[in-house]
């Protein structure tokens, strides 16, 4: 393939990229330099079209198709990397092997192909950042199971799919993603089928129940849910779309985004944050140097994501118990979307029931106008990628109350979307919420009659539409979405733990005679209301101590 001539462009290495990003001239075009790791720099690839010795050699049409694939790949990676990575198909060669009688590839075909290139063309495959074996003209092995494959560690990838169509292009860019350092991009899916059954904890019945979205509402991390390792419909590493990599991948795996552009919430105060779309950069081509870059790279002083860690617990099926874990979450925004995407680890969470459980469904964001408590993303977890691994078969214990795992949680409110000279963005209000003392419903740090009045006013109310922290503040202490006798038992216990007794429905903190009269009047009203509203067992009713 023809390559560009004399050097007329100022090449931007990684250190210089940072300099350009930090400078006032942030709109200067950025192209990759030599690169400091396998996911940066202007790199070279060897493209091998493998065929049977008796088949026709590589055709002109096939070469033109490969040139088209190369351009699409280079544009994709230039835009994704912010001009920090580009890869040329410097050599495109025809490789003739003696295939098996059924058209499948012989044993050691990777090595045989490389030896053919060495012997026929005098080219050393190990001199290239990438060796791409196009095996579409060979027959897939029985039960092969892959359209593309990356051999790691190493620089070899193979593509069985036809690169002339969109699926083949996805496979090429997907496998190249593996080569430069990222795994698959998954999704948590609450599917209920022969292989997976999702469960929720039913505090009223003190048992696990099969998850039903109508009955239980949004539950992003049901127990036993499927972790679909290829399931992210917003990333090329999910094998569903040709969308760009996630912010977590760009930051953690490739280093294309910095800590300043994806900060940790632990280092930030509560407030409203503007998260810019990370998939809007405009690609430019330097013909003289045959290089792809971007008109302007990621702005150094803008946010392209937020991340944070929290304490949780993960069920260990071997030990059949929940064990402490650190959970890492990332927020990001994509161009044209109406909400924020949340990732737990490397997989996207489903925060929108509208999308259902369809694998290709793209309704997963926390949308504009919505608020999410961190507690709504369950902190006790168990997911699986193994077919037929049923959570209840391990006889799991009850999950730990999330308020025992942490007393401080975050709340996220999506305010709106807009655009400026940098690009489109979404604004998210982030606040820290302290759970406080169990039973202190009004948050005044005291357990008193006013908490009982608030509890009374919400007696038997359905609070399932609220977030976990809001439900707790209204009396739903066990988190089942309803204020009932189980919550009353917890409330009584909380008062007792704090050295406060509930006598005949009255709150008595070392009372004086005057205080008793006052509390008796206030809580007496609550007692009459509760007695009239429901007939509970006398041992648990607030009206029947």
From TrEMBL:
GO molecular function, one term: metallopeptidase activity
InterPro entries: Dockerin_dom_sf (IPR036439), EF_Hand_1_Ca_BS (IPR018247), MetalloPept_cat_dom_sf (IPR024079)
Keyword terms, alphabetized: Signal
Gene Ontology biological-process annotations: polysaccharide catabolic process
PROSITE patterns: EF_HAND_1
Residues in the signal sequence: 1-28
Full protein name: Dockerin domain-containing protein
Gene3D superfamilies: Collagenase (Catalytic Domain), Dockerin domain
């Amino acid at each position: 393939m023809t390559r560009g001539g004399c050097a007329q462009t100022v090449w931007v290495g990684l250190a210089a990229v940072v300099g350009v990003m930090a400078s006032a001239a942030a709109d200067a075009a950025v192209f990759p330099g030599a690169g400091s790791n396998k996911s940066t720099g202007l790199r070279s690839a060897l493209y091998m079209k493998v065929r049977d010795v008796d088949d026709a050699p590589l055709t002109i049409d096939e070469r033109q198709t490969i040139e088209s694939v190369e351009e699409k790949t280079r544009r994709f990676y230039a835009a994704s990397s912010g001009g920090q990575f580009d890869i040329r198909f410097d050599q495109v060669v025809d490789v003739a092997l003696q295939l098996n009688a059924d058209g499948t590839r012989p044993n050691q075909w990777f090595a045989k192909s490389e030896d053919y290139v060495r012997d026929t063309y005098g080219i050393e495959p190990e001199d290239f950042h990438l060796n791409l074996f196009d095996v579409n003209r060979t027959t897939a092995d029985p039960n092969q199971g892959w359209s593309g494959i990356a051999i790691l560690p190493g620089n070899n990838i193979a593509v069985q799919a036809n690169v002339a169509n969109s699926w083949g292009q996805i496979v090429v860019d997907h496998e190249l993603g593996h080569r430069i350092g990222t795994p698959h991009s998954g999704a948590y899916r609450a599917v209920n089928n022969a292989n997976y059954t999702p469960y929720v904890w039913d505090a009223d019945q003190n048992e696990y129940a099969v998850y039903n979205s109508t009955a239980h509402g949004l539950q992003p991390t049901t127990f036993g849910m499927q972790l679909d390792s290829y399931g992210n419909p917003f990333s090329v590493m999910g094998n569903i779309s040709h969308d760009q990599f996630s912010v977590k991948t760009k930051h953690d795996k490739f280093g294309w985004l910095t800590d300043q552009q994806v900060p940790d919430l632990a280092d930030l105060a509560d407030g409203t944050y503007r998260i810019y779309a990370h998939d809007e950069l405009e690609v430019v081509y330097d013909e003289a140097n045959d290089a792809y870059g971007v008109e302007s790279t990621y702005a150094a002083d803008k946010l392209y994501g937020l991340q944070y860690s929290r304490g949780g617990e993960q069920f260990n099926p071997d030990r059949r118990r929940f064990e402490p874990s650190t959970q890492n979450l990332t927020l990001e925004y994509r161009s044209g979307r109406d909400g924020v995407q949340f990732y737990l680890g490397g997989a996207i969470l489903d925060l929108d029931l509208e999308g259902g459980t369809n694998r290709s469904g793209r309704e997963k964001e926390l949308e504009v106008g919505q608020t999410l408590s961190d507690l709504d993303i369950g902190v006790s977890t168990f997911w699986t990628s193994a077919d037929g691994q049923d959570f209840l078969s391990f006889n799991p214990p009850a999950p730990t109350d999330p308020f025992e795992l942490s007393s401080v949680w975050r709340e996220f409110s999506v305010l709106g979307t807009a655009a400026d000279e940098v690009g489109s963005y979404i604004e998210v209000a982030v606040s820290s919420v302290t759970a406080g003392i169990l039973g202190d419903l009004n948050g005044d740090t005291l357990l008193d009659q006013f908490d009982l009045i608030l509890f009374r006013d919400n007696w038997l109310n359905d609070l399932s539409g609220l977030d976990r922290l809001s439900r707790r503040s209204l009396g739903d202490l066990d988190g089942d979405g309803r204020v009932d006798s189980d919550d009353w038992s917890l409330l009584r216990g909380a008062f007792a733990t704090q050295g406060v007794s509930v006598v005949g429905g009255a709150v008595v903190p070392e009372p004086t005679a005057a205080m008793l009269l006052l509390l008796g009047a206030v809580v007496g009203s609550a007692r009459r209301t509760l007695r009239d509203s429901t007939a509970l067992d006398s041992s648990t009713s607030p009206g029947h101590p």
